[in-house]
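Researcher: Let's try something more involved. This one mixes different molecule types, so please make sure each is placed in the same coordinate frame as the others.
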Amino acid sequence: MTIQLSHGSGGKLSADLTRDLLLPRFANAALNQLEDQAVLSMPPGKIAFSTDSFVVSPLFFPGGDIGELAVNGTVNDIAMSGAKPLYLSLGLILEAGLAIATLERVLDSIARAAKTAGVTIVTGDTKVVERGNCDKLFINTSGIGVIQAGIELGVKNIRPGDKIIISGTIGDHGITILNQRNKLGDNISLKSDTAPLNGLIQTMLETTRGIHTLRDPTRGGLAMTLNEFSQGAGVGIELWEENLPITSQVAASCELLGIDPLYVANEGKLVAIVAPDGADSILQTMRQHKYGKNATIIGEVVPDHPAIVTIQTSLGGKRIVDMPVAEQLPRIC
Amino acid sequence: MTIQLSHGSGGKLSADLTRDLLLPRFANAALNQLEDQAVLSMPPGKIAFSTDSFVVSPLFFPGGDIGELAVNGTVNDIAMSGAKPLYLSLGLILEAGLAIATLERVLDSIARAAKTAGVTIVTGDTKVVERGNCDKLFINTSGIGVIQAGIELGVKNIRPGDKIIISGTIGDHGITILNQRNKLGDNISLKSDTAPLNGLIQTMLETTRGIHTLRDPTRGGLAMTLNEFSQGAGVGIELWEENLPITSQVAASCELLGIDPLYVANEGKLVAIVAPDGADSILQTMRQHKYGKNATIIGEVVPDHPAIVTIQTSLGGKRIVDMPVAEQLPRIC
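Model: All components are placed in one shared frame. Result:
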């Protein structure tokens, strides 16, 4: 059984797909109306709104798949503002000829990830294109969350003296995908770190003070996120290489391939820029959460060299960490 | 100048694309923060949330293009709930090798359409896939609108006796795309009806009473929308063929190609199901608006044959209007 162009026609096969594949997995009061939009009651407060398309290849990889990534990616983008993610939309672009069993496996994963993250899929859209006009399956998720009064995270809050915390090891997702693509060997115990970080963030915001901004270092890796912070706030950033948490497998793969782990994508990590006097307490709180147990202070914001990120290497030298320019690894998310 | 994989890397070329192509066209307070999510203040009230992916081929056609369609499509899906559309997200999936001039033309069109519809693009995402893994350019737009207190449209409101109004001629969009694909000849003055309908709906809701539900008959055409209404509300629907507004060009093309215009997509039309005693006043209001000037009562909701749509033909017969089953024309939106 495969996807046919008629599954995207808006006619009977589209309705069958909604009834047989989507509603049993995602049923909820808003979606069940089968209107072209969800009508939602929102708690008071500002909202956070985010979108992400997912084109990862392969669709399935150790530690996750495109469906889990699509939920966690948008959940995390919303949560990084300090918002509690509530509702997601699900836009599917399917290639005619895709096995329905493959689609079902991805939809199961989406449903599971949404439940784990505590979000509801309330509206959606499915398009089908001819064979050869997309690669199996692309997913867009957009989402909405609500921000509690008093929370105002953002690059604008970053100050010299702030500490930089990473919630765990770097490079796991990107190196896992690279390993799958290049079939570097199955004996390497690599897996994606894809995870919903809204629970960790909620705990951090409820129990600590001094969080200035949060971001998940996905495409472009930690190097890109820190360059964005440094340029956006007009401050310098100094990293300490010996503090960077990295698994021995990822370190070995990076060395083998000549890749700098600072530029490799993560899908379940966050960078927190925090006030210096709050840093230790924030770190302790993070370490008690399963997605923050390897949290580490990896550097600080400095008044020197505004808009430039530097790293103190383990050998005692210092170099500039530029924005990544060339694409090392397309379609990692 | 073409799109390269590095434009989707999340690195420097991604940042350049945002700075050079997106911000100059879409700049606003939320987007300019360059965070991974927009933080928005919403007026009080329920919200409507909708998503749509656009894969239309060709990208440009008489009367519009994929960019205009992507804005109007989501604006309309939000507006059909009675909501005022406020904010859109923009998710781009680009094929490596796409001419940047083509992307710029589409982005110009998106900016123009958003301005016309009165919505702001507040967040976005761009992915690039290798040549041959998508067809030039796919767009996802998701959006949020706010519903004024007291407005509760929906299929659940449909009652026997209600009148069915279409806001104008049917089949224009689908037949235009079909004509472009099959190169049936340039002398036919066909063009897409793509249009933002939020202004028309706002006027209808402010000046009339008795609107029970609204929907835009896009993929699957009027036949699909009315079957959804009929099945969703468990009522019969009777159409009057001689009242169906259709241009002579679309009628001629449909006859030539053996296509029933009831099944052809529209991108700037709405169906309103309205209380019988409000129908005339609603019709008059619609006809004063540029997107409703050919509005017509085309049938009524009946207590007989629940979940079935019938049509009284011009020749005096009566037949059933089924849901469309096979795909006549893929990728019309």
